[in-house]
Amino acid sequence: MIRQVRGAVTAIGKSFLVIDVGSAAGGVGLRVFVPEPTLARFRLESSVTLHTYLQVRESDLSLYGFENTEELAVFELLLGVSGVGPKVALAILSTLPPDTLRLAVANKQPAIVARAPGVGKRTAEKIVLELQGKLAGTSDDLSGLVSAMDADSEVIEALTALGYSVVQAQRAVQQIPADVTGVEDRLRIALSSFGE
Length: 196
Description:
The structure is a single chain. The chain has nine helices and five strands; from the N terminus they run E-E-E-H-E-E-H-H-H-H-H-H-H-H. By secondary structure, it is α+β, with helices and mostly antiparallel strands. It has three domains: 4-66, CATH 2.40.50.140; 75-130, 5' to 3' exonuclease, C-terminal subdomain (DNA polymerase, domain 1, Orthogonal Bundle), CATH 1.10.150; 140-194, Orthogonal Bundle (Helicase, Ruva Protein, domain 3). The radius of gyration is 17 Å and the shape is globular. It has a five-stranded mixed barrel.
């Protein structure tokens, strides 16, 4: 099984990176599906290392990549939920960082999970139910996340009021550094991401 790839980004698609993992004389380019925040971070010719999950089907091999082992572990946990395939799991991680998902599961809030495209109410409820106790996190971690989630909700509401879609607003919020805590500062950074 392919558990890690390292190389240079040679192409960027709608939901994937093509990574040249061979030598400069004639390498091999692997298509690796990645969460949207990861996709937004890399440019052509960037050097990248991703932890990967290889899905094997009769007529298809698909490689999914993550910047850290925590994202990979959450992806694999999501795949263990009946009715959740790789595309839905990737959509969830594109919309919700692992900490936010952990908080939603711990607080039994399927509505937060249902924000991800392609995740309906029943699937979100199933995810929250089946992941109870499987997503590790201390109560101190979770209490800090509550205030961050409240700030993020306010930023998303402000961005949608300005005419941005919910998906655009969520993407902008995901790119805000974790150490920025004030709603105004978070909103300013989110707005500046639209100018790039």
